[in-house]
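Archive entry: two folds, one per protein. Generate the first.
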Amino acid sequence: MKIWKIVHPIFIGKQANYKEINGEDIAKAMNNAAENQTDKIKIYNWKEMTDLL
C-alpha cells in the first residue's frame, strides 16, 4: 500500500480508474449503490465509487 501513495498522484487518463480506495470507503459506496441501483449488474470505477461516498 505504501507504493500506491507514491504512484497514486501520477495516474491520469484510463489509469485513474485504478487509484487506491480503502476498504471502509468501498463498503460505504457499495451500500449507497445498493440503495439506488437500477441496473442488474453495474461495475463501478474509482471516480464512480468516490462519487457514491
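Generate the second and append.
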Amino acid sequence: MKKYTIILLLLVASTITAFSQWSSPVNVSNLPERDMHAATSVDPNGVIHCVWTHFINTGFRKIYYSKSSDFGDTWSVPLDLSQNNDSTASSPQIVISSTGYLFIVYNQGYMGYSGITYMVSNKNGIWKKQKVANFIYGFRGIIMDHDDNLYLFLHHSSKIYYKIFDGQTWSNIYPTYDQYTFINDVIADQQNNLNFAGLKYTADLNYRLIYGIYQADSNLWQPVYEYAIDSAETPVIGLDQDDLPHIFYRKKSQINYNWFHPQYYIRFDGNNWSEPMLICHNSYDHDFIVNTQNHIYLFTTEIDEDENTDLVYRQIQNGIITDMSVVNGSNENFSLGHPEPVLQGNTLGITYIKPFGSFDCDVFYNSMDLISKAENTYSSESQLFSSYPNPSDGEFFIESNSKIVEPVEIKVINSEGEVIYETFLSCDGEFFRYRINLKQLKHTYLKDGMYYLIAENEKLKTIHKCIILNSN
C-alpha cells in the first residue's frame, strides 16, 4: 500500500496509510480522443452536472455536458453544448442557482484563450446560448452568490474585470484592481460578499499570495491583504461555517520551470493568519470543499514515491490531517488532473481527468460515504475525560476530569465497529490516569485512521474520537 509523507500543524513529520473507502471509478465522458478541464456542480435536487473540454485537435475543441441523477453511478449521454464546427472552445465553468437553473460559461476562439466568451443556460429543460463578452476580454471565471447573482470575471492587459448577471440582464463591465493584481478563486460568504485568493505581480518579477474581499452592498473592492509568500501559484479558497477563509496554494520550489511544486495550507482565525502548513512536496492540481462541521476535504494531483501521478484525498480538521487515501492512480507523470469535489449529505464525490492509452483522456467520477459503520453508532463527544496525545501512534493516555466512584469499562472501537481493546478500572472516588498501548495488541493489525475511545459505567458513558497516525 502506498505511503505519503505529510507534515502536521506543528511540523511533525508522519507517514500515514490510506484507510478511507472510495467507490470504483465511473467513466463520465466516455468519448474518443481527449477530454480535459472538467467542472462539476450539484443542483438543489442532488443531480450532479459536469461539463468539460473535448479535444479533437490543436485548433478544434468542443464543450460537452453530462449529468447523473443517482449521485454518480450512471451518467447521461454526453451533449454537445458549444455546437461549434471549428475553433477552440475551452475552460468551461458551471454554477447552479437555488432554483436549479444551470449557467455554463466558456471561451471560444482561434487564438488559444483569446476569443468570445459564451454562456449556455438551462431553464426548465430549455438550453439557450448567448455571447457575454467579446474577444477583447479573456474568460477568467464565474461565481454565484446566495441571491443567485452571477459574477463573470474577465481579463485584459494584465487587469481583472467583472460584470454581473441578475438572472435577466447583464451589468456593464467594471474593473477590480490595478494592473498585475489577479483574482484566481472566488467564493461568496453568507452576507454575499465575495472572498478571493489571488496573486500580485511584484517589482522583483515575482507572484505574491493575496486575499481580498468585494463588498457587494457598496460595490467596493477592499485593499488586498498581501501574505508574505512569494513564488506562489494556483491559490484556491474556501470558507468555513464562520465565514473564515482557508487557502491552499503551491509555491515554486526552483527557478527553472517545473510542473510539480510543494503545496501549502493557511487559514484565518478571525484575528491572524496561520503559518503555512506543508501538505505535500510534489503537487500539480488541487481543489477542496468544506462541510457544515468545518471538515476540509482536499484533493491533490501529486507524485508518489514511485514517480507516478496519483489523485490523493485528505481530510483536515483544525489544522490536522485526519484521513488520507489514493482516489485513483496512474503509471504516468502529469496525467491526472482537474479535481472537482462535490458534496451532498454524507456522500463526497470527485470528478477528475485520467488518461488511457497513449493520448486519450476521459472524465471519471468516484465517491465515498463519509459516515463509517462505527460513527453511525459512536458519534457523541464528552468532556468528562481527556485523551492525549491526539493524534497518536497508538500509545496514548486517558485521564478523568472529575473524581469517579464506580468502576469504569474502557473500550477502543475501530472504524468498522469492532472492539479491539477492552479493560476495567477501579476508581474508588479518585481521579484516574491510564496508559493505553494499542501497538502491543498481538492479534490485531493496527491501521492508521479514526478510532473511538469509550469509557462507561452504570452512571456515565463518554466517547472520544482518536486519530492514529504512523502506527506501523
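Annotation attached to the second fold: The first helix runs from residue 373 to 377. The helical segments are 373-377.
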